[in-house]
Specification:
The protein is an alpha+beta fold and 162 residues long. It has one domain. It has helices spanning 10-14, 18-37, 70-91, 96-122, 130-145, 149-152, and strands spanning 6-8, 47-52, 55-61, 64-65. The protein has a 4-stranded mixed sheet with strand order 1-2-3-4. A hairpin with a 2-residue loop joins strand 2 (47-52) and strand 3.
Length: 162
């Protein structure tokens, strides 16, 4: 029996630089801890997170590739990345604080939309609460983009932020 609810496939992890791999492993550990705290139980079929044969995302549970609207997911990832870019640029300018809240709210809306997408994809398999769905979206974002976890974990100490 597996001790985790979510796993990143070995091929995906091995394709990443050591720093990104460690960041992903930490994000995955936090995802699994939050999932267990939310009452999800590990079983012999963890959700495998990896890159699909044509890039993008592939989620697999018990040998079944879970249905994911690829166009919707890719648009969500692009919009979320763009929102984080705007937020980062705002932080780097002297006038940034005037726009931070607006940009952070936009990023949070996109993150919630991505979390909803994860809930829909896994609906037949697991019931995800808001926190677990957001953390899962963060992990799949990191897997598909190769972005640094520090880019998306800026608000990790704020439980209300995404």
């Amino acid at each position: 029996m597996s001790l985790v609810i979510f796993r990143i496939d070995d091929e995906t992890l091995e394709s990443m630089a050591a720093t990104r791999r460690r960041e992903l492993e930490l994000a995955l550990l936090e995802l699994n801890e939050d999932a267990r705290e939310a009452g999800l139980e590990p079983d012999e079929h963890p959700v495998m997170i990896g890159r699909g044969p044509h890039g993008g995302l592939q989620l697999v549970r018990a040998g079944e590739i879970l249905a994911l609207n690829r166009q919707e997911f890719e648009a969500s990832v692009a919009a979320y990345g763009s929102a984080m870019d705007r937020l980062s640029r705002a932080c780097a300018t002297p006038f940034g604080p005037q726009n931070l809240q607006r940009f952070d709210e936009a990023k949070s809306r996109l993150h919630r939309r991505g979390a909803t997408m994860m809930r829909e994809v896994l609906g037949e398999h697991l019931e995800l609460n808001d926190l677990v769905a957001r953390r899962l979206y963060t992990v799949v974002y990191l897997v598909t983009t190769g972005s640094s976890a520090s880019r998306v974990m800026r608000h990790a100490s704020d439980p209300g932020a995404s």
